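User: Here's a chain of 75 residues. Predict its fold as tokens.
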Amino acid sequence: MATLPTPEETAREILAIFVSHFKSRPEDVLRINNFLAVWLPRGLAAEDFNPGMEYAVAQGWVEVRPGGESFKLTS
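Assistant: Prediction complete.
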């Protein structure tokens, strides 16, 4: 049986998408569609995105922009 990723693990995937895939720097913003284009091909389930993003926001790694459709990488 496969092990489900933790919110921390998926939050770290979100950071990897920001930094490694899109070469983002602090203050750069990505839209939800940027993440989804990379998320599923990485073998991640769609339902794991929100818990990961919530964890990343709680840690201060990412900010949700007004409207909830884009996310800013913090310093």
